[in-house]
Amino acid sequence: MDVIICANEDEAGRYTAAKIAQVARWVGPKVVIGVATGSSPLRAYAVLADLVAQGKLDLSEASAFALDEYVGLPEGHPESYKDTIRRTVTEPLGLDPARVHVPNGFAADLQQAALDYEAAIKAAGGVDIQILGVGSNGHIGFNEPTSSLASRTRIKTLTHQTRLDNQRFFNSLDEVPYHCLTQGLGTILDARHVALVASGEHKAKAVKAIVEGPVTSMWPGSVLQMHEHATVIVDEAAASQLELADYYKAMYANLPDWQRVTL
Ligand code: F6R
Questions:
Q1: pLDDT at 189
Q2: 240 three-state secondary structure
Q3: Is the distance from the beta carbon of residue 103 to the nearest atom of ligand 1 less than 6 Å?
């Protein structure tokens, strides 16, 4: 696991965007990007959108797969992840909407929708780089504590903590759905690269647990310790509980140029 400690949220977003752009250039125009909603990746999306606008990156033939979707919202709800991804990813990054996929949390048969989603990822050749945020309880996707480390896309119940954390997107806690469809931890581990970005003091405990704690379903993001190409990108506040912070900083400061990720 590579741990990159950035001075602030802005630098973390720039590094995350640079990592995605690097993989996109390695893979070529048909790169498959796994995308997250929430606040954490927004800075990276803005940087990527600038690269696209300046003609430095072309994602018009890329595919994207979102991590998750609420279950229980009406279709077209502005806070549904289908709408959120269109607003924050598909349009600004110039993706072809036909190649942008979000789990169908509106389906009458949710179990079939979960199977279909796994099949669609497979048919696209798998995810080249997966962008992740982390919940304050350590979830990635909506894989809440005690999720199976081998889980695939399925229906999950959101914890009270996650509903509280996401209340800011709704008018009241009552409006926050109780259920979701989410890629499983096993699904996420299949991505060829993963880049998790976190900023702020409120993420410090989760970052400490997933980077330096034991691999445990109580902190689902800790499963990334089993991934061959996982990068955790944090600002100083989110890194504040890391025991080996000085080591991660020294490692980054002394990277040879050829290993550096730049925009
Ligand atoms: C979003 C997702 C979640 C969020 C996490 C952090 O698609 O799957 O795991 O990444 O809840 O959310 P923010 O970034 O809003 O703090």
A1: 98
A2: coil
A3: no
Torsion of CA 210, 198, 62, 192, to 10 degrees: -20
Which tokens belong to 107?
């389906």
- Any idea which residue has 């999950």 for tokens? 156
Distance 132 CA to ligand 1 centre (A): 7
- CATH number attached to the domain at 2-255: 3.40.50.1360
Q: Where are the alpha helices (DSSP H) in 124-237?
A: 160-166, 185-189, 204-212
C-alpha closest to that of 141 among 66, 42, 192, 198: 66
Bridge-based pairing state of the strands 154-157 and 32-35: unpaired
- Domain ranges within the chain, ordered by starting residue: 2-255
Annotated catalytic, 101?
Answer: no
Q: What is the pTM of this model?
A: 0.97
Atom 8 of ligand 1, nearest CA residue? 141
Residue position matching structure tokens 């001075």: 7
Structure tokens at 165: 């954390």
For the CA of 141, the closest atom of ligand 1 is 8
What is the sign of the dihedral through the CA atoms of 78, 83, 85 and 91? negative
What pLDDT score was predicted for residue 262?
Answer: 82
